[in-house]
Specification:
301 residues, alpha+beta, 5-stranded antiparallel beta sheet, 4-stranded mixed beta sheet, 30% helix
């Protein structure tokens, strides 16, 4: 990585927003991952445009990171620049029943804002740790609801730095997928349409979902949430449990005994441990039930 690229990035965002040899384990919910050559946190879409133009010109590979809640970074890290659309890129405002949200805000904070404003429709998001941008790209969902139900428009940037909007069906939202994911777009801003509701009812729903999560999910351990996508008409966690894999462990990676749909880091897990465990799960479930599980976790580096 040339000194020139580092100095140019500092010139765009300020020295406090560019780090070298940054441990990715500090930026993923798995708490796993080697170092990224460069780690940049832009604060505006104009800064992001300049960063992309620079990296493209210098032929530096880059990866866009949100809250790191559904990724597994390799033990070797990432050779190139990780650009985090997160802490420096957050805002949320209300216009009637519409929310206009900068993509770096977390899904949970977005749901809290809706609750504070007596708006219903985002209760499902209250326990999702990812960013709003990541939620749009993955069409994140829980407990029978998903972003597709409330998301009306996104402002996007492609990897060349061009900005444009996608509305309604143009977003191509489907189960854990979207046009933004397929076309490798960066989501900058979201417009969500909610409904007026009773604050106390919304609060009770938040508490009900929190109770369901804490009683059934291994939130006390680092993980990337649900490890595999739900096969049509089935549940990944049940298939893994029925295959006798609950508690199965490779190195520091374990199939959670609380919920078999989660691979957790029980201490010192490497990316290689997690990958080996996931491959074992896929092979075992395929052999026993003829179902091929697809990872929900993205592999980086």
């Amino acid at each position: 990585m040339t000194e020139r690229v580092y100095e140019s990035l500092v010139g765009i965002t300020g020295k406090e927003n560019v780090k070298r040899d940054e441990p990715m384990k500090n930026h993923t919910t798995f708490r796993i991952g080697g170092n990224a050559d460069l780690f940049v946190t832009p604060g505006t879409k104009e800064e992001l445009q300049q960063i992309l133009q620079l990296l493209n010109k210098e032929c530096v590979p880059f990866f866009i990171l949100g809250n790191g809640s559904n990724i597994l970074v390799s033990d070797e890290g990432f050779r190139g620049a990780v650009i985090q659309i997160g802490r420096n890129y957050q805002s949320i405002r209300r216009k009637g029943c519409t929310l206009v949200v900068k993509s770096g805000i977390t899904m949970a904070r977005m749901a809290s804002f809706a609750l504070e404003n007596s708006l219903t429709g985002l209760e499902f998001a209250s326990g999702i740790p990812g960013t709003a941008g990541g939620g749009a790209i993955m069409n994140a969902g829980a407990y029978g609801s998903e972003m597709k139900d409330v998301l009306k428009e996104v402002l996007c940037m492609n990897r060349q730095g061009e900005i444009f909007s996608l509305k309604g069906e143009e977003m191509g939202l489907s189960y854990r997928n979207s046009r933004m994911k397929k076309d490798d777009l960066i989501v900058l801003e979201l417009i969500l349409e909610l409904q007026e509701g009773e604050q106390e009812k919304i609060r009770l729903r938040h508490e009900e979902l929190k109770e369901a999560r804490t009683s059934k999910q291994p939130l006390e351990y680092p993980s990337a949430g649900s490890t595999f996508k739900r096969p049509e008409g089935m549940f990944a966690g049940k298939l893994i449990m029925d295959a006798g894999l609950k508690g199965f462990q490779i190195g520091g990676a374990q199939v959670s005994e609380k919920h078999a749909g989660f691979v957790i880091n029980v201490g010192g897990a490497t990316a290689a441990d997690v990958k080996a465990l996931m491959e074992h799960i896929v092979k075992t479930v395929q052999e026993q039930f003829g179902v091929t599980l697809e990872p929900e976790v993205l592999f980086v580096g």
